[in-house]
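Chains adopt folds. We examine one example:
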Amino acid sequence: MTTVQSPPAPPTAIRPRVVARTGLYAVLAANVAVVTVFFAQAGFASNSLIVIGRLLGLYGALVMAFQLLLVARLPWLDRRIGMDRLTSWHRWTGFALLWTLLGHLVFIAFGYAEGTDTGPVGEVVDLAETTEGILRALVAFALILVIGATSARYARRRLAYETWHFIHLYTYVAVVLAFTHQVAVGTTFTASSAATTYWYTVWGVALGSVALGRLVLPLWRNLRHRFRVSAVVPESDNVVSIHITGRDLDRLPAQAGQFFLWRFLTKDRWWQANPFSLSAAPDGTGLRLTAKTVGAGTAALRHLKVGTRVFAEGPYGAFTTLHRRKTESLLIAGGVGVTPIRALLEDLEGHAVVIYRVSAERDAVLYGELAELARAKGAELHLLTGPPVPDKLAPRELARLVPDIADRDVFLCGPPPMMNAVLRTLGDMGVPKQQIHFERFSLAG
């Protein structure tokens, strides 16, 4: 087994995730301040309800633009923060957007209805019929309501990813409608040339980021690398490895621990994109993913033909050596979650302990490769088998296997219940949060 390894960055006091997160907060805070200044310069209406409503509308427009930045899949942000965390932030800012726009609508309606006999609902209807841009804003708000409803945990669990994704494409329709509403009736937007330039810049950067990360980069990388299936290797009855080749793969900025969205361009599967981690560290000549059968889509992978064209979006994820804090590591894998762990072991330097948790030995996919790598790198490898109870990853057991666990980086990947239990255990054992690295498969947007 030969690999081309780039030496990982040594542990540093500078934390990339903190830098990226702080940068995002600073950008958002600075824009909130700028919006507030432009709003004050534009002058206030005599009605305080209208003043509050207009300010909430401006903040809503800013939050909407910020949301686009979170789902843009920009490599710099993704590698430092991670798609799962960006998705979580996107979700919460989405609810913030919903309440902000609702407040905008309510305050504007009651503000314009003050001193009239029409009432807030009648005033909204009258504005929609007589004022340019209001009807578009109401349609945008209705779309955001539908999108917000499908993002609720109850609905999300019951919708197929493709259905959920299709509904969320209407977000872009809502963005366009909201922007044209702002252009048509936004007094702050037209109050000065500086304000007009600012808002065009905000929306241009937000939409441009989405176009770059979601369209331009994937198209450019696939045209450049021309991915194809080079081999299909069954690992067990329900697990298969797909080897990918292409052009100039040494220039593909992929790292061990990351994942791609893979589309295999066959007649019946070209429209499906599935996230699979790299199960081997990129060596500049090929890529490998390893998938477990969980449905018709993954079951069809073992029938792929050599030469099948592949459209790959990525690499994505912050589950890499970039975030190391210590020179020694502990890698914990559960089930098929071993795939990024196996790739990370190949890439990590320094002493490593690997714990692989499965129900039975026959479920230990890639165990032979793990054992070979462990011998070559001087790592400790522990295979833990058996039912979930008793917990073989409880504090006492982990302390026995890894007495110096608090002095190691911990990389964790496995089924959600196992990951949640291990995260609680690591907290109980006093392992600092900045030394715990994990990522859940969540796609922003």
